[in-house]
Input
Amino acid sequence: MAEVLNGELTAKDFETDQEVRWCPGCGDYSILKQVQKVIPELGVKREDVVFISGIGCSSRFPYYMNTYGMHSIHGRAPAVVSGLKATNPNLSVWMITGDGDALSIGGNHIIHMLRRNFNINILLFNNQIYGLTKGQYSPTSEEGKTTKSTPMGSLDHPFNPAALCLGADSTFYARTMDRDPIHLRDVLSRANAHKGTSMVEIYQNCNVFNDGAFEGMTDKSTKADQTLFVEHGLPMIFGANKEFGIKLDGFTPVIVNMDSVSENDLWIHDETNRAKANILVRFYQDPSLEGNFPRPFGVFYTEERACYEDLLVNQVELAKNKFGKGDLDALLRGKSTWTIS
Amino acid sequence: MAATLESTKEITILFAGDSGDGIQLTGTQFTDTNALFGNDLSTFPNFPAEIRAPQGTLAGVSGFQLHFGSIEIFTPGDECDALVVMNAAALKANLKTLKKGGIIIANTDGFDAKNLRLAKVDSGISALEDGSLSNYKVYPIEVTKLTKECLKDSGLGIKDIDRTKNMFVLGYVLWMFDRSLDPTLKYISDKFKKKPEIVDANSKVLRAGYNFGDTTETPTTRFSVDKAPMPKGVYRNIMGNEAAAIGLVAAAQRSGLELFCGSYPITPATDILQELAKHKNFGVKTFQAEDEIAAIASTIGASFGGALGVTTSSGPGIALKGEAIGLALMLELPLVIVNVQRGGPSTGLPTKTEQADLLQAVYGRNGESPVAVVAAATPADCFNMAFEACRLAVEHMTPVFFLSDGYLANGAEPWRFPTVDELPAFKGNFATTADASEEGYRPYDRDANLVRKWAIPGTPGLEHRMGGIEKQDGTGNISYDPDNHQHMVNTRAKKISNIANNIPLQDIELGEAKGKVLVLGWGSTFGAIKAATKELIAEGHSVSHAHIRYLFPFPKNIEEVLRSFDTVLVPEMNMGQLNMMIRSQYLIPTVALNKVKGIPFSKNEIKDKVLEILG
Output
């Protein structure tokens, strides 16, 4: 097969002959479709694209992408990805994971991957439930959630993935949703453009075991009131009629009515501001409750920081310059020898 | 008067003191000096797990045993000729290993009331003074005091001065065994080249120790051990972990692959990671992962990307890696797993040796999950078998275990190292764009040996998906078909058993190819078995020694070798794991000899058992 440049490929070229086996109506279908649409637009050769996943419903994803792919083991995809990028820094590596895979069994790996900042893209499908094992609570399930393993309600306080990522010094965090394909594609493009570990949390509906988990944020009738789509340099405004804004009162965000303030008084989103991003990630209460904040979507935070694989390659070059290219005979010989004749 | 010089064939000496006394360094320097002189030798460092265990106590005693000679040396020695002790606890803990009439060199400053109390000497009277050592030659030396005296004008603080006292002892021992100070003086000046005052102090104390022997009237006898008649060639001294690391680098160089080592620090394997980290100029990439699982998973990622992937660990770490080893064997990627075994189970005895992870390596995973297993017999052999593990992993696209242990890892021996040209070259069978087809690449197509090609990301036309889920042979697509699963299980097993065609036949290390007793070993029991067998043969017994380096699959002729003897004795530092494998595969009624004390077999333990069998 001849080398095909990206511009000539379409979404169809990234489909495989494998039957997609997610439940009918699963949010994963939408994500797969948008990814297949976005990849051809990125200017990357197909043979340089690799999808690596752990275990869970979302982790079947690589089998449906006509690229290189590996369906690894539960929670360990970040480590597999790290080794691959260390070996071959030029690949475009996409990691597919879920809330259980990334934040429960793979929790240790995800935080270390973020601080090391390998140049990869992580798509975290968050459906707040364990789907593949048929409906147990996950580390992002809300407190008190009744599931098959928690018939009297879950006792766990959930992770806030955004806060967790920022706490681990992530250099790129964005949130999007399965039911907003345009926003999803925009965020994927932004993630790909960022050099470093790009963490994209995707709210994904599990219509079998946790249907409607994000309904308020995705349903047309409530979406505008319960969501806040942030964009760098723009004021934070939401509501069906853009009637609400977010203002910072010291460190405290407050919701204001646009009748009483001008846009200039609002919080202007600055995705390079770590302190403000740390406030933004705490817009996390239940948005259906009165007085609570809309759930933000978009790129929360991004920064430039050296990537691990580049530093590693630099060290190898540095060592070659400093000590000369490895001389195996000298290594075998060691520092002191003696001769028996 | 000058002491007389007495010639002897072999000496076993044990240095013992607090783990902060620099015992390991003293022992290593004395070892290197003897190696450079041309002796054959074997060492056994034995230290507590704590970095600085409570000073002066029995628990804090660190030891370094060296057996050197003008004859072939196979073990660190069963009993000691000389014991160098820095305090009362060191004497109390090690006196039992000293031969009657042996030499005790004691730092008397380590025998004061406090030291006696810490060593739990109930009488409160020093053994140096109570007459209990009348069967030994005791040389009490006020090492601490003499060292202080020597450096009183150096301007160094009391702590720095105290740290040099091991050099006084080393100087004295070098005098007693008629060895040059030069290698140690060179070592000191290299090691502390940025601190000239420390170089001066250590050198001065070293010379003072030597001169102390020369000028005092006791002892009246020094010992001289001639060069050993070893095969011609150029030698160096080497420890097992260093040999393993160099073997891995050599394998990468001889295969043209980039070496990637994903590892998490664990005793006693850490040295391999540290050694590899020094060799980035060979293109070696080391990755200290966040845990054992990430260490192997990152290595699998590197192997997927076309690197020679190696992960290094010890038993507890290997337990954590189990699932990922299964993934690598399902992916059919090359992967070398180094297990420097230590005492188990669980945390067990981190700094002590054992070989109780054999069954873990061969069988310790879920499902039908065969991987190849090789093991080194001596410290220098760690080079050969680490290299072999890499070769087999790449040529057969499979995970391969390389088993070492704490005794090999930290033990040292002279090594007639190879040149690059003497090392075999090997290469990965990489798929190319020519292997692509319109229907998509078939990652699990196999050659006659059932080995698939290595198709690495970045190669146009070879895009493929694979994972830990059972797959259809050829395409690699997910398959739950019952017949396919049976086929794949059979195929993976056959693929590993085919490795037997690519390894040497089992040889007899020592003795005849048939006879009454075969002592069958694997791993670090090599030295004790060989030493025992050699003596038994010299005494006229029908005994042979065979040592298995390829444990899974076994060499093709192993059954024939074993059936040529009336009795097969299998000594192991476990409760009978190789013994079980041999019995279950060949139904041969082997006899087991087992020891799990965290210390190696002595020659006599093996010998006694053989004599018992011979009746």
Observations:
- Chain A touches chain B through 66 residues (CB under 8 Å).
- The longest strand of chain A covers residues 295-302.
